[in-house]
Write a structure and sequence with these properties.
Length: 637
C-alpha cells in the first residue's frame, strides 16, 4: 500500500506547505478523497474564530471505522492491525488481524446496542491497555456513540466528574489491570465513582485478571457473556452508522489553568483526516512497518497514534500494557527486539528515566529493526535527545520531535522523518495546513526570525477541537479570547534564525509532569480538601526525570506532630481527589503566601523560590506582607 499524499522530499514538503496555505480547500479535498465516504462534503471549510465555529467537510457522511477496518479487512485481511504485548513477559502476546478486528468490533458494537447504546450517547471507557480497549473505542464509533476514555490512573472522583460532565449512560471497564508488579482494581474504583453518577445505566466489565468483583444485578454485565450472546446469534457484522462529518467522535478531558478539566471535543471527518495525514507523513509510515507508540490510550497520543492514525492507514500498531521499567529497564528494548519494531514513539520523561539506568539494559538487545524514533508530550532536553539518538537509534534513525496538544488532535509542528532536518530540542517546522504565529503579551504579531513569543495558530486545520463539551463559551474563553482571531496554545515558543520552532513550555498555570498535563488550580483544590489545610499554592519546578515536579506551599492549621505524616496525608488527599499522577513532590508549610494587596497570589515569586532562584526574585514591594517571602526562602525544601 502507498499513500499518494505522503511527502517525498524537502522540496515536496515546501511545495505542499505552500499549496496548503494558498488553497486550503483544494489541498484538503484532494487528501480527503483518499478516504471512504457515504457522501462527499458540500463545503471543505467554514470557519470563524470569534464564535468559534470550525467545520471541515460539512455535508459529508462517513464512518471512521470503515476507514480503519472494513477497507483493510477487504484488501489486507490477514495483516496484523494490533500486536499486543502484555505487562507480564511470560503472558502470551496477541496478534489481531484486520479481518478479526472488524469482527470483534462489530460483535462488541452489537453488545453495546443490546445494552441500550444509541447514536449520540456518551460512553465512558476506563480500561487497561488491552486490545479490548481499542475494540471498545471503535465499537462506540461504529454505532455513532461518543467515547470518553478516562486514563486508568485517575481516581474515582475524577472519573465521576468526567462521567457527570458528559452525562454518560454506559461505562466500559475491566475487573483490574496489572501495572508493573501492582494490581489496580479498576472495577472497584468505578463502583466508587458511580455512587455519584445517576446517568449511568449499564457497566460492561471485561474479565482481565479473574479478580472477584461485586456485580450490581441488572446494571453490571460481563463483557464475555454479552459477546457470547452475540456469537450465539451468529452476528459477525453490523453496518456502520452514517455520521455527519461534524458529528462528535469523542470527548477527551484535559487540564487547563482554571477550574475542572474540560472535555475537548473532536469530530468525525476532520479528526480522521488529520490523525491519518500526520501519522503517514511525520513518521513516514511504510507498508507493513510495526509502529510502537508507548503512550496510554487514556491520553490523546494513544487516541491518535495507537488507534485512529495507524488503523486508518492500514498500519500495524503495537499496544503495550505495562510500564518501561518492569520487569526491568530493558522492557522497551526487549519489545523492539521481539516484534521487530520499526517506529518507536515515546515521551522524553521515559527516555530520561531509562537513561538513568545506564547502558546495561540495552546491551545485547538487537535494535536494528528501528527506522524512525519520535518524542512527544514535553520539551526534550538535548542530553536526552543525544542519548536516544546514539543508544537507541544508533545515529541512523531520524528522530521526530512532535509538538501538539489534546486540542490539536494530531501533530502540528514537527520535522518529517528522514525528510526535513531534525534539530535537537526543536520541533522545527509546521506541517502543511498549520500556520503558527508568535505574539507578544498584547497580541502583536512578532515577525522575523530569532524571536520568542506566545505560540498561536491563525488558521484552522482539520484536526482542531470544535468545542469543550457542554460549555462552548469556555472553549471560546480558553483558546480564542486571549488574542483576537487566533487560537492560543498556552505555550511559549522561540523561532530561531533558521525559522525553526522550539517550544519552551507552558506560559499559563498548567504543569507538565512526566508528560501529563495538570492544572495548578486543580492540585490546589485537591490539597485544600484536606481538613487541616487553610490555603495552598502550587507551582512547577525543574525535575530531572519528570521534566517538571510539583511544589506545594501549604498553610496548615491542624496539628503537626509528625510533619512527614501530615505531608503524606495531604499527598494522599490529592491521590484520592485526582489520582497519583498529581501528588506533590514537595510540600512546604508556610505561615502565609505572597499576595498582592488585591489578594492575588504572586506565583512568579513562588516559582522562582521553587526553582532555587533566591537572589533575583523581582519586586516584592507591592506585596501585602513582604516578610513572608523571607520566611519561605529560608525554609525552602
Ligand atoms: C507540551 C500531548 C515541547 C506542550 C500531545 C503542550 C510539548 C502540551 C511537545 C500538550 C513537544 C507536547 N515539545 N512541548 N514536542 N509536545 N508538548 O494535551 O506544552 O497532553 O501544550 O498533548 O504538552 O499536552 P497534551
Amino acid at each position: 500500500m502507498s499513500y499518494p499524499y505522503q511527502i517525498k522530499s524537502v522540496e515536496h514538503y515546501h511545495e505542499q506547505y505552500q499549496k496548503s496555505i494558498n488553497d486550503p480547500a483544494s489541498f484538503w479535498s484532494e487528501i480527503a478523497n483518499n478516504f471512504v465516504w457515504h457522501k462527499k462534503w458540500d463545503q471543505v471549510l467554514n470557519w470563524n474564530f470569534n464564535e468559534p465555529k470550525v467545520e471541515w467537510f460539512a455535508g459529508g457522511k462517513l464512518n471512521i471505522t470503515e476507514n480503519c477496518l472494513d477497507r483493510w479487512a477487504e484488501t489486507q485481511p490477514d495483516v496484523a492491525a494490533i500486536i499486543w504485548e502484555p505487562n507480564e513477559p511470560s503472558e502470551k502476546t496477541r496478534t489481531i488481524t484486520y479481518k478479526d478486528l472488524l469482527l470483534h468490533v462489530c460483535q462488541f458494537a452489537q453488545v453495546l446496542k443490546n445494552n441500550g447504546a444509541k447514536k449520540g450517547d456518551r460512553i465512558c471507557i476506563y480500561m487497561p491497555m488491552i486490545p479490548e480497549l481499542t475494540i471498545a473505542i471503535l465499537a462506540c464509533a461504529r454505532i455513532g456513540a461518543i467515547h470518553s476514555v478516562v486514563f486508568g490512573g485517575f481516581s474515582a472522583q475524577s472519573i465521576s466528574d468526567r462521567i457527570q460532565d458528559a452525562a454518560c449512560n454506559i461505562v466500559i471497564t475491566a475487573d483490574g489491570v496489572y501495572r508493573g508488579n501492582k494490581v489496580i482494581p479498576l472495577k472497584s474504583v468505578i463502583d466508587e465513582a458511580l455512587k455519584t453518577c445517576p446517568s449511568v445505566e449499564k457497566t460492561i466489565v471485561y474479565n482481565r485478571l479473574q479478580l472477584s468483583v461485586s456485580m450490581n444485578d441488572g446494571k453490571d454485565v460481563w463483557w464475555n457473556k454479552e459477546i457470547q450472546k452475540v456469537v450465539d446469534k451468529n452476528i459477525q457484522f453490523i453496518p456502520a452508522e452514517s455520521m455527519d462529518a461534524e458529528d462528535m467522535l469523542f470527548i477527551l478531558y484535559t487540564s487547563g489553568s482554571t477550574g475542572k478539566p474540560k472535555g475537548v471535543v473532536h469530530t468525525c471527518a476532520g479528526y480522521m483526516v488529520w490523525a491519518n495525514y500526520t501519522f503517514v507523513n511525520v513518521f513516514q509510515y511504510q507498508s507493513r512497518q510495526i509502529h510502537f507508540c508507548t503512550a496510554d490510550i487514556g491520553w490523546i497520543t494513544g487516541h491518535s497514534y495507537i488507534v485512529y492514525g495507524p488503523l486508518s492507514a492500514g498500519a500495524t500498531s503495537l499496544m503495550f500494557e505495562g510500564i518501561p521499567t518492569y520487569p526491568d529497564a530493558g522492557r522497551f528494548w526487549s519489545i523492539v527486539e521481539k516484534h521487530n519494531v520499526n517506529i518507536l514513539y515515546t515521551a522524553p520523561t521515559a527516555i530520561r528515566s531509562l537513561m538513568s539506568f545506564g547502558k546495561e539494559p540495552i546491551e545485547g538487545k538487537n535494535l536494528e529493526s528501528l527506522q524512525v524514533l519520535g518524542t512527544v508530550g514535553e520539551p526534550i532536553n538535548e542530553e536526552a535527545w543525544h542519548w536516544y539518538n546514539e543508544n537507541i537509534g544508533n545515529k541512523r534513525c531520524p528522530i521526530v520531535d512532535t509538538w501538539w496538544q489534546t486540542e490539536t488532535g494530531g501533530v502540528l509542528i514537527s520535522n518529517i522523518a528522514g525528510i526535513t532536518n531534525a534539530k535537537p530540542s526543536f520541533a522545527t517546522l509546521p506541517l502543511p495546513g498549520v500556520q503558527p504565529v508568535l505574539v507578544d503579551e498584547q497580541g502583536n504579531n512578532i515577525e522575523g526570525n530569532g524571536v520568542s513569543g506566545n505560540l498561536c495558530i491563525k488558521f484552522p486545520w482539520p484536526g482542531m477541537l470544535r468545542t469543550t463539551y457542554g460549555d462552548h463559551e469556555r472553549c471560546r474563553q480558553t483558546y480564542f479570547s486571549t488574542y483576537k482571531n487566533l487560537y492560543f496554545t498556552g505555550d511559549g515558543c522561540l523561532r530561531d534564525q533558521d525559522g525553526d520552532y522550539r517550544i519552551t513550555g507552558r506560559v499559563d498555570d498548567v504543569l507538565n509532569v512526566s508528560g501529563h498535563r495538570i492544572g495548578t488550580a486543580e492540585v490546589e483544590n485537591a490539597i485544600n480538601m484536606h481538613a487541616g489545610v487553610v490555603e495552598s499554592a502550587v507551582v512547577g519546578y525543574p525535575h530531572d526525570i519528570k521534566g517538571q515536579g510539583i511544589y506545594a506551599y501549604v498553610i496548615f492549621n491542624g496539628e503537626i506532630n509528625e510533619e512527614v505524616e501530615v505531608k503524606s496525608a495531604i499527598a494522599k488527599t490529592v491521590s484520592t481527589v485526582i489520582g497519583a499522577i498529581a501528588k506533590p513532590d514537595k510540600i512546604q508549610f508556610v505561615s502565609g503566601l505572597p499576595k498582592t494587596r488585591s489578594g492575588k497570589i504572586m506565583r512568579r515569586i513562588l516559582r522562582k523560590i521553587a526553582e532555587g532562584e533566591l537572589t533575583n526574585i523581582g519586586d516584592t514591594t507591592t506585596l501585602l506582607d513582604p516578610s513572608v517571602v523571607e520566611e519561605i526562602k529560608k525554609n525552602r525544601l
